[in-house]
Design goal:
Length: 421
């Protein structure tokens, strides 16, 4: 059976660069001229290209799809992987996986160096590549070749660890870096049955820094510039970024993810960083952003990452902001919302963070409602009397009714708006 790559046809335009491996007799299409899958497990080849060191690089990977999976579902599940492939190309220039060489381990050797090598080899099997690099960087920078590295772990004391921490503090090493080193040492000791009282070991306090340190007025200027940007597609993307969304998940949004009846939009698990499906409320600003697009099916915003980057830099350059990247908008929205009274849990929901999931599940209500609360706080600041943003009449009605009936739910306010039409 000779399989050949056949370009996948999907009317929503999401299958660009994707090919299904079929025999000549298996090439079939639906009445809408979309690729039909074979009645078996099949494979899809994803081809990507990206710029690396001013050179255009190309790469491809093949993914197995279980029998019975529709083409649209298979393609949707691969969109996130496709973006990761592009990012890998941008960083490395190739999709080839470096060969991992495992050193032979002497299990009788109890020196820290030997036990660390055994531990990190296992981590290479089970842990993300970037995490392994972070562990290795910490070890090679601060322990490798030192007296501690050559010492038997059975002779390690609390003082050994604390003295190392003091030494790093004196060298001006950042608290986060020291905390990572502590994780490495503790893991190696714990897995080799070396018990230390870690409560006695004092680490420098990690002071959380706001990524966005500008004033509320500066935040309003940035938001106003983006929301009034002339290009409709870029302006629509900016609207979602200013609601706390990530650029990757925004560009992958499709019209089928929008529920106008319930005023919600869905981010499918395969498109989110946390790999979990999340729902958010559609504010009037976001509805306007969607309806201002020419598309009615498939991807809402027909932009590539590079295109929106160009427009973002152009917009920021027009107001003299040159030290900001798109991802900083999430920080700006969160910081500004918190400054103006939004609940920390609401902001966490808005940003789809997972680190408060247990608390949220036990004590907090609907995630979409809390996310809307944080978005409303930021939007309210933008609509302050001294700096009014021109929006659709429907948004004005919503704001007026919200002020008149502060305890009414969004759903009730929208019903009133419908009755007024």
């Amino acid at each position: 059976m000779v399989l050949k790559p056949v370009k996948i046809n999907l009317n929503n335009g999401t299958a660009r660069g994707m090919y299904i491996l079929l025999t000549k007799d298996e090439i079939r299409y639906t009445k809408d001229n979309e690729t039909r899958p074979p009645n078996r497990a099949y494979k899809i080849e994803v081809a990507v290209e990206a710029m690396h060191s001013n050179k255009r690089c190309r790469g491809k990977s093949t993914f197995s799809i279980v029998v019975g999976t529709s083409i649209s579902k298979a393609v949707s599940s691969l969109l996130g992987k496709k973006e990761k492939m592009k990012e890998t190309l941008r960083l490395k220039g190739t999709l080839k996986v470096e060969k991992v060489v495992f050193e032979k381990i002497d299990t009788k050797d109890r020196k820290f160096k030997s036990l660390y090598n055994a531990w990190i080899n296992n981590k290479k099997i089970t842990t993300a590549e970037n995490t392994v690099k972070a562990y290795n960087g910490s070890y090679t920078s601060f322990i490798e070749g030192s007296k501690l590295d050559k010492k038997s772990v059975d002779d390690f004391t609390v003082d050994d660890i604390q003295n190392l921490i003091h030494e790093l503090i004196n060298r001006g090493i950042k608290p986060k870096t020291i905390s990572l080193l502590k994780i490495v040492i503790k893991n190696v000791l714990d897995i080799n049955d070396v018990q230390l009282n870690w409560k006695k070991i004092v680490l420098p306090k990690i002071v959380a820094k706001e990524k966005f340190s500008g004033t509320d007025d500066e935040a309003k200027l940035i938001a106003k510039t983006l929301l009034e940007y002339k290009h409709p597609v870029a302006r629509g993307v900016f609207s979602f970024l200013l609601s706390g969304r990530r650029i990757g998940e925004t560009l992958l949004m499709e019209h089928k993810h929008i529920d106008y009846t319930k005023r919600l939009f869905t981010l499918p698990a395969e498109n989110t960083k946390a790999h979990t499906e999340v729902k958010y409320q559609l504010t009037p600003l976001l509805i306007n952003a969607i309806k201002s697009q020419k598309t009615t099916k498939g991807l809402i915003f027909g932009f590539k990452h590079e295109s929106i980057m160009y427009h973002f830099k152009k917009a920021m350059g027009s107001i003299g902001v040159h030290n900001m990247v798109m991802h900083d908008l999430r920080s700006m929205v969160a910081v500004t919302a918190l400054r103006n009274g939004a609940n920390i849990y609401s902001v966490s929901k808005m940003l789809s963070h997972k680190n408060l999931s247990t608390t949220e599940g036990s004590y907090l209500g609907s995630g979409s409602e809390m996310a809307a609360e944080a978005q409303d706080t930021f939007t309210a600041l933008l609509a302050a009397p001294d700096d009014v943003i021109d929006v659709e009449i429907e948004e004005d009605k919503f704001t007026v009714l919200r002020n008149l009936y502060p305890n009414a739910s969004d759903e009730k306010i929208y019903k009133i708006i419908e009755m007024m039409k």
